[in-house]
Amino acid sequence: MHLIINNVALLRRAGVLEAVWEGVKGTMLRWEGVSQLVDHDAPVAEGEMGHEERNEIIEEVNKELAVYLAILYFMMEINRGDETWGDDLSQQSAPRERAHATRPPRRPWVLTFPAPSPVMQ
Asked: Where are the alpha helices (DSSP H) in the chain?
């Protein structure tokens, strides 16, 4: 535990919070962009990214995001209760919203449930 506390203090003194936060935002934008590239039901056209390649990229992005979130988690837990930490967090910029007009239309998720079976008497 002592090493974690010292490492988090070192990261904070080095100003890593901003880099980690920017990494989280960038990774999320990449994940969102890659996840919309291929329709699972459509056949893959020549020259387009295939399902396997897309899944490999998403897996890589997920791993990167997990690292950023783990660093952020440890920084938050160790600095909990520190008012200057709250100030540092509040200075971080919010994620940019993507323009909804440029997004391809998504398929609506439709949940269907089977009809309830008659109760046996």
From this structure: 2-13, 16-35, 51-78, 83-90
* Residues spanned by the domain of 4: 1-38+71-93
Q: pLDDT tens for residues 72-110?
A: 999 989 888 888 887 887 787 776 655 444 444 444 444
Whole-angstrom distance, CA of residue 97 vs CA of residue 92: 15
Residue 6 lies in a domain: yes
CB 28 within 8 A of CB 95: yes
Residue type, 105: P
Task: State the total domains in the chain.
Answer: 1
Report yes or no on 54 lying in a domain.
no
Residue 18 lies in a domain: yes
User: What CA–CA distance (Å, rounded) separates 36 from 33?
Assistant: 6
Is 86 contained in some domain?
yes
CA distance 118 to 121: 9
Q: Is the pTM of this model over 0.70?
A: no
